[in-house]
Amino acid sequence: MPSPETWLRSALDSATTAGIYPVLAVQNAPLPLVVYRRTGTRRERSLGGPHGLPVATFSVSIVCETYSEVKEIADSIRMAVDNFTGTVGGVRILLAMLVSESDAMERPNEGQAKPLYRVDQTYEVRFQEAV
After folding, report:
1. b/e for 81-120, b at 16 or more Cβ within 10 A?
2. DSSP 8-state code for residue 48
3. What's the whole-model pTM score?
């Protein structure tokens, strides 16, 4: 069954050549990398039942060795995802909105001296589903 994850993966693939992973990156994954996951879904209802237009919330985290690279990839992803409408892979996206973005740092891996840089983005995606 088509899902907004199908669309998001496609959008991420078009935005960057970084490794892209759902939910969790594999151990020792090469950098740069992007991890995405659905963190929640709001399904509104009326007296007649569900509307069939839920809003899914997605977390997208980008991790790189340099601050400039992480900001560049984050901006490319924002341009591909934010304000998107359309149908991809059988999923109708009514609106994707960037609602939050923040910079962070990853602790260095064992034996490494340099920290890794991270940008976390949160998107709300209204999509159409069968009811």
Report:
1. bbebeeebeebbbeebebeebeeeeeeeeeeeeeebbbbb
2. T
3. 0.90
